[in-house]
Design goal:
42% helix; mainly alpha; flat; 38 residues
């Protein structure tokens, strides 16, 4: 289903709700740091 929608395994899914933008950015930064090992 994801491939049919044009979503490849290398994509990152970001679901945003009612969180404050600072919380979202902090979560993204932590996730990227964990993924890159930095």
């Amino acid at each position: 289903e994801q491939q049919a929608a044009g979503v490849s395994p290398g994509y990152v899914r970001l679901a945003v709700g009612l969180e404050h933008i600072d919380d979202i950015l902090a979560d993204v930064e932590r996730g990227l740091a964990a993924a890159t090992g930095s």
